[in-house]
Design a protein that fits this description.
51% of the residues lie in helices and 11% in strands. The chain is α/β, with parallel strands linked by helices.
Length: 293
Amino acid sequence: MNDEESVMPALPGPSVRRRQLGNALRKFREGAHLTAEDAARVLDCHASKLSRIENGQSGVRARDVRDLLDRYGVDDAAARTALEALARSSYQRGWWHDYSDALDPGYTDLIALEATASDVRNYQTLLVPGLLQTESYLRAVIDAHPNGYAEEQVRQRLDVRAARQQALTRESSPLRLWTVVHEAALRHAIGGARTMREQLAHLREFARVPNVTVQVLPFEVGAHPGLNGPFALIGFPELRDLDVVYLETLTSSLYVEAPDQVRQYADVFEHLRAVAASPKRSLAFIDRLRDDL
């Protein structure tokens, strides 16, 4: 534990990460056939505190996570590293906290998750994925929002999106993105022809980046399992129990965290990936759409 962590209070969010960590710790404890009272002795605390940690209501330090995992007999190095990093992130202030007054808490959770995740599997029906949107395209999307925003608010959202997209190009372990985009999203002329030509060129450029895969789901596929709408599956391969699904609505952001439900979304994505055009054919398809504009 470093000195900063020892004195810095836990930040108020994001709660999704705390719930992920708590769920994983509870499963390891139950797998070791220990009671909450048994585990609480490791931290020299009351069982009620351990319950709050496992329910995601309280943060826990990386040192305490290490001690708990030792007691639970967890020797999987990758899982230990992932859980300790998750604990440590609750005590670190990310760049997005400078925009906390302007962002919905659910969106803040998404940004924080992307900052620590290893991959995102994304399905989009009417919009280009946010991580691949150009500024002019995003501005057109923001301008169409029914609430309306002042120019300063628009600028903040553009800045946040640009910073968020840096996860794809960061030097250390860039985020891997695999996206399936419905043809409707690419034909939907957001911002007009010029903006869409620029957006399609940008999409094609990123589709050639090693850690980004783009597939187009053409109209001709017909009915498919993704008809219920777009979603993003945020992954942590070191410990798949940490995976969560992000769903965005007009008024809020929702997270699906139950492992059996997350697996259903993963199965849907695998089906969509199988029926969509191959990455190579998708590039050609994007080129044709851009030429048509």
